[in-house]
Design a protein that fits this description.
alpha/beta, Rossmann fold, four-stranded parallel β-sheet, two-stranded antiparallel ribbon, 29% helix, globular
């Protein structure tokens, strides 16, 4: 996710991130994308508290979640939000045992979070395992009809890796937000969000499943 959001430019043939000049703070907050243990709850809560207490952090991108709400994580996200952070959370990407659940997952359900999911290149359906719903704010084309995935940093050597789902959609959107905030550093969180919204294809009419839609990054940074 860090690679998709902000991997630096290089000459080794690897993939470059959306906001490749951004400064990144990475926190290992959980064992995997499904937050189902008490230690992960503590880790994620501590990460958001850290973000809230770090003045240089403006954007938080989290591609993890769970089906049910947890007060400790919610309170930490509210704390970070109240400290001016623009928070992007993944709408959800299903495992085989959650295929019945297609709504937006926690914490993307929170009003303090900007929920993001992925759509296919047909622009009318969510990517194979991505969740959607009325809480979604933005989408990114993440998978072709053949279920190909976007590129990111290599796991090893110089061959780019591939990632997919609402997770990388979220990281990509956070990168676009960083481009906007980088061009307009004096803007507030709300001004950055409003620019993303007004630069999206469904604006001014919000879609019931895909929110404001796909952000035109070129338009957003003009």
């Amino acid at each position: 996710m860090l690679g998709a959001c902000g991997a630096p430019r290089g000459t080794d043939g690897n993939a470059v991130g959306v906001a490749y000049n951004a400064n990144l703070v990475s926190v290992r907050a959980a064992e995997d994308v499904l937050l189902n243990t008490s230690s992960e709850t503590v880790g994620v809560s501590n990460a958001f508290t850290l973000a809230g207490n770090t003045a240089s952090v403006k954007i938080v991108s989290m591609s993890m979640g769970r089906l049910t709400s947890v007060n400790q994580i919610r309170d930490a996200i509210i704390y970070a939000y109240n400290n001016g952070k623009l928070i992007f959370c993944a709408a959800g990407t299903s495992f085989s045992w959650t295929s019945w659940f297609v709504g937006v997952i926690f914490p993307a359900t929170l009003t303090q979070a900007v929920a993001v999911t992925g759509i296919k290149t047909n622009l009318t359906s969510r990517c194979g395992a991505c969740h959607s719903g009325s809480k979604v704010d933005f989408v990114v084309v993440m998978e072709k009809n053949s279920e190909d995935h976007p590129l990111s940093l290599a796991d090893y050597s110089n061959d780019p890796s591939t990632v997919g789902g609402s997770s990388v959609s979220t990281a990509t959107t956070a990168g676009i937000a960083a481009l906007v905030w980088g061009k307009y550093p004096s803007w507030t969180r709300q001004q950055v969000f409003d620019r993303l919204k007004t630069s999206s294809n469904y604006f001014p009419n919000r879609n019931s499943q895909f929110g404001w839609g796909r952000i035109n990054a070129q338009l957003a940074t003009q």
